[in-house]
Design a protein that fits this description.
Low-confidence stretches: 1-12, 14-26, 118-135, 218-226
Order of helices and strands: HHHHHHHHHHHH
Structural class: mainly alpha
Shape: globular
Length: about 230
């Protein structure tokens, strides 16, 4: 099989540097679709193109699901993607959705093995400084570091958190996200909308709380002197 050439070289999955992974992608949908077709024929450079285009957002998604084990789960997911790539039929958007489905399935398997629930990388605190009040919740999440975004989304109910992760963090449309979750697109749109509204309220409340603490200190040398 052509795809065997990719599997015969496991280092293919680790060839992209951290700089490449976190730099903005210059590949458009047509370029990714072309890379899919060539990777299915055994072109390792095109497979690396797919990896660089999809891995950063996929890793953020997995970090929300399995915490510090995200990289190991991502590696398992990419091995399956490489193995099954020949059976994939679709374009750029379809590939991103398929990759997210594979990653989520591997994450659920991992959680079942570990007998634990998803754990965010850090505790929830100090989020108000991450975005100004004029930002929408979605834009704020995009601008945040991975840890800050995960801390924020971890405050949501599970269904809303996954909908926001897939739509905002992974970048899927409602239909693709619905396919990943096994739900209707309308249900995912509703969960995402409610989740983003709730996140906006959290950001506003956190901002107000910080402002009140700053404007009305409850203790300190100046307060004691009055």
């Amino acid at each position: 099989m052509h795809s065997g050439s990719i599997l015969n070289h496991p280092h293919t999955l680790r060839m992209a540097t951290l700089t490449e992974l976190h730099s903005p992608s210059v590949d458009g949908p047509d370029d990714i679709t072309h890379a899919i077709r060539q990777a299915q024929k055994g072109d390792e450079e095109c497979f690396r193109t797919l990896y660089r285009a999809v891995q950063p957002r996929l890793l953020r998604y997995l970090q929300a699901l399995v915490g510090e084990d995200a990289e190991d789960v991502a590696s398992d997911a990419w091995l399956q993607i490489a193995r099954d790539l020949g059976s994939f039929h679709g374009d750029d958007a379809g590939f991103r959705g398929w990759a997210a489905t594979v990653a989520r399935n591997r994450a659920m398997d991992h959680l079942r093995r570990q007998r634990r629930r998803p754990v965010p990388a850090m505790s929830i605190e100090d989020l108000a400084e991450r975005a100004g009040p004029e930002d929408t919740a979605g834009a704020a999440i995009e601008a945040m570091s991975t840890d800050a975004a995960i801390k924020l989304i971890a405050r949501l109910p599970r269904d809303q958190a996954e909908a926001v992760l897939l739509r905002v963090v992974v970048g899927l449309d409602a239909k693709s996200a619905a396919d990943v979750l096994g739900k209707r697109a309308g249900a995912v749109r509703t969960a995402s909308y409610r989740g983003l509204r709730r996140l906006a309220q959290h950001l506003e409340e956190d901002g107000s709380g910080h402002a009140e603490q700053h404007d009305h200190p409850s203790s300190g040398p100046s307060a004691a002197a009055q």
